Amino acid sequence: MAQFQFFDDTTSPSQGPARIAKLRSELSRRGFDGFIVPRADEHQGEYVPKSAERLSWLTGFTGSAGTAVILTSKAALIVDGRYTVQAAEQVDTSVIAPVQLAHMSAEDWIGANLPEGGVLAYDPWLHTSDSLKRLEQAVAKAGGKLSPVDINLVDVIWIDRPAPPQAPVRPHPIDYAGETAEAKLERIRRKMAEAKLDALVISDPHSLAWAFNLRGGDVGHTPLPLGYAVLPREGRASLFFDPAKITNEAGAAVGELAEFAPIEAFQNALDALGQKGGKVRVDSATGAVALIRRIEAAGGKVDVGADPIALMKAVKNQAEIAGSHAAHLRDGVAMARYLAWLDHEAPKGQLSEIDAVEALEAFRIETGALRNISFPSISGAGPNAALPHYRVTTSSNRKLEINQIFLIDSGAQYEDGTTDITRTIIVGVPTAEMRDRFTRVLQGHITIARIVFPKGTTGAQIDAFARKPLWDAGLDFDHGTGHGIGSYLSVHEGPQRIAKTGTTPLEVGMMLSNEPGFYKQGDYGIRIENLILVEPRAIPGGDREMLGFETLTFTPIDLRLVEPALMTKDEIAWLNDYHAKVREKIGPHLDADTRAWLESATRPIG
């Protein structure tokens, strides 16, 4: 049995109609014509506690991104390309219409469907300043108006809503953090001084955890302590948590740097900030409208802008890099043992997707260092592999069939590092089309791994390189090529990313994923993912400061799916060199049988 993930069907399309009907009754009672339900908590987090899973509870949709707009006579669920199929399967489409974000945004849908003069209600704790501006424009286009609510209307009808989490807050050891909280706060305050800020409201729990070297367990698979902080340019910081979560160790670790205060005192602290009349930074990405309005109502000046901590956190120090190397070596051994086991067991035709997840988790547990998985494993056989963010449940569970592709995307949380890896495996014999598509994805992956670029280059400028081999065949994929990675924090970390939206310049020390893919709906899916580290790269004779990537992940890539005839000599050389490093790093830690499997799985080609 898996210890860190479950496979129960937690929602059903049948739950939506009755709950949406109750919400509409509440709208009618309060004189509203609609309510917007984003997939978000008060920190605008990707991973949210059970008490904030409002979208899932209301509609049945369990994806990590989406927005429902419930009007009195119609409703829509807006999702991105990752969740198009999933949304249609999980909601009652006779009551709520799935809408693909690429075709129409939530704001577009509101502008087209809110009745003239209609009042759209929203929870100001679940929207940022930017998202509210877009909502205002959409509502104005429809000739309606927006109205904030003091209590979330879903919470009003969610009678058995779970209590907010109370996982203990603990210190993150300096051996892994690599920098004291005191030194981090000094750096943050220097950034505040440059921006002429008098205080910083830290609304992102990732930033709070990193700045004060704290970790928690309030959301699944990410060691986050949910809370807020107020950091004045001078004087002690204040950390706002449920008092039940504060351990003696956390108190001792924070010491004189900050005082702990109950979460109930946070809004009064915002009032006090406003009354001082200083310039207060609120994060544009995670700062709720409710924060801004509270400070402004008390007379304060709010500066909505980038959280300065986000970029500091993204650039890993030497201790964090060393920890990641150790975590990836440990994880690579577990992955090699797992893939050898899978190659032995899958052809027997008895393995299910859940069996595959449970086995991988067991191999990671055997390392003795696993704290959690970094996200629910994506274990997709055959057509389920074509769903980029598929999560296996007891009802969707498929057998790994002969001559089908199996995709496993998983990761681990170790105290010294966070991992994320995808491997695509053929059980039996692949078709020529599968080999072609896999090789094109591999070529894109290799291009990113080998690319050298000038300092100041953004992820958006690099993203197309991963797609060209697919574009050459009239193909593409509907997700980014890479996301940032935290250090024993979130498996998805910004602001760095390799994607069309990746506008942050890449810097030495940033960690990202390299994961191009291809998905043939109803048939198979392919993704090859390693983690990479930005490092300096000297080019003899060049006149620019150049950067490149070090590959951190060492796990075999399935050679049965590779078509060498499509590849260049340089691409084949990269793959052979990568596999040689896998043998060198991972081989000595394996038993004789697994080492023999690894030798075969990483044999040179070409």
Give a verbal description of the structure.
- The chain folds into three domains: 143 residues, Creatinase/prolidase N-terminal domain (Creatine Amidinohydrolase, Chain A, domain 1); 139 residues, 3-Layer(aba) Sandwich (Creatine Amidinohydrolase, Chain A, domain 1), CATH 3.40.350.10; 276 residues, Alpha-Beta Complex (Creatine Amidinohydrolase).
- It contains 19 helices and 28 strands.
- The longest helix has 28 residues.
- The radius of gyration is 25 Å and the shape is globular.
- 50% of the residues are buried.
- It holds the Pfam family Peptidase_M24_C.
- This is Xaa-Pro aminopeptidase.
Broad structural category:
alpha+beta
| DSSP E strands, number | 28
Helix content: 25-40%
Unreliable stretches covering 5 or more consecutive residues:
none
Total helical segments = 19
What is the CATH top level name of the largest domain? Answer: Alpha Beta
CATH topology of the largest domain: Creatine Amidinohydrolase
Largest beta sheet, briefly? 6 strands, mixed
Q: State the end-to-end CA separation.
A: 42 Å
Radius of gyration, whole Å: 25 Å
Domain module count? 3
The proportion of residues in beta strands is 15-25%
Q: Order of strands side by side in the largest beta sheet?
A: 4-3-2-1-5-6
What is the chains' assembly state?
Answer: single chain
Assigned CATH architecture of the largest domain: Alpha-Beta Complex
Shape: globular
Looking at this structure, what is the CATH superfamily of the largest domain? Creatinase/methionine aminopeptidase superfamily
Domain Peptidase M24: 326-535
GO molecular function: metal ion binding; metalloaminopeptidase activity
Domain Creatinase N-terminal: 19-150
Domain Peptidase M24 C-terminal: 545-605
